[in-house]
From TrEMBL:
The species this protein was found in: Rossellomorea oryzaecorticis
Coiled coil regions in record: none
UniProt KW keywords: RNA-binding
Gene: yhbY
Matching Pfam families: CRS1_YhbY
Protein known as: Ribosome assembly RNA-binding protein YhbY
InterPro entries tied to this protein: RNA-binding_CRM (IPR001890), RNA-binding_domain (IPR051925), RNA-binding_YhbY (IPR017924), YhbY-like_sf (IPR035920)
Start and end residues of each CRM domain: 1-96
Taxon lineage: Bacteria, Bacillati, Bacillota, Bacilli, Bacillales
Listed Gene3D superfamilies: YhbY-like
Length: 97
């Protein structure tokens, strides 16, 4: 689990990022989870936007993504979800203790 200080650090790092994935009408599916997992391995930190036509609530989307990818939920702000998962190969962030 991430601590408050670590979440604040990751939020500041994610601020300038653009959402890479969009969750739309179909909600979250296996294929999307697989692609997000691969992207997290490369980037560690990413934003995902929940479109207006998504039938799922944004917190449901966030929970499904966290459960499916094993990532940490950094924040849900507006219709944007920020996820973090430490990379095995491409470590980019050193979290504060």
């Amino acid at each position: 689990m991430l601590k408050g200080k670590q979440k604040r650090y990751l939020r500041s790092e994610a601020h300038h990022l653009s959402p890479i994935f969009q969750v739309g009408k179909g909600g979250v599916n296996e294929n999307m989870i697989k692609q997000i997992e691969e992207a997290l391995e490369k980037r560690e930190l990413m934003k995902i936007s929940v479109l207006q036509n998504c039938e799922w609530d944004k917190t449901e989307v966030a929970e499904a993504l966290v459960e499916g990818t094993g990532a940490e939920l950094v924040q849900v702000i507006g219709n944007t979800i920020v996820l973090y998962k430490e990379s095995k190969e491409n470590k980019q962030f050193t979290l504060p203790r």
